[in-house]
């Protein structure tokens, strides 16, 4: 069981690192644009050129500002990361743990992941907007309520930290197996 849960932690950490890199890239792109604009006020677009796919992607200033904390690009990467945290549990490790313990997948319970599922539903089924069931959040109530879903680097960081603790809690529950 220890190896399984360590693999779970490792996979979550890799996902978190990917999120931090994407988060940094958003800020770096915005900073680069505005630093360049100081000496080139006529700039209209920030252009990313992808030579592998012979593709140009243009961002105007309004779009660049979506990179800010709370901006739509930030919300997309934060929400997607949080949803993946849940998916890794639900689609992979919950099943593996159940098989190791000798029970059905649905017999492996976690209040933390039940709350994370509600956040994931807001992200994936309600276009990154809060759902009514967020009123049931307890440990993860800092993420929002039925009227507002917070998706910033703070929420991702805090959920990641709580997720690592939850994996440790799961380890203590099932360490005999």
Mean pLDDT: 93
| Topology order in helix (H) and strand (E) letters | HEEHHHEEH
Overall tally of domains? 1
Q: Rounded to an integer, what's the Rg over CA atoms?
A: 19 Å
Task: Please give the count of helices.
Answer: 5
Q: What overall geometry do the principal axes of the alpha carbons give?
A: elongated
**Distance between the ends:** 6 Å
Helix content: 55-70%
Q: Which range does the strand content fall in?
A: 5-15%
- β-strand number: 4
Largest sheet: 2 strands, antiparallel
Weakly predicted, low-confidence segments: none
Say what oligomer this is: single chain
What class, by secondary structure content? mainly alpha
User: For the largest beta sheet, what order do the strands appear in spatially?
Assistant: 1-2
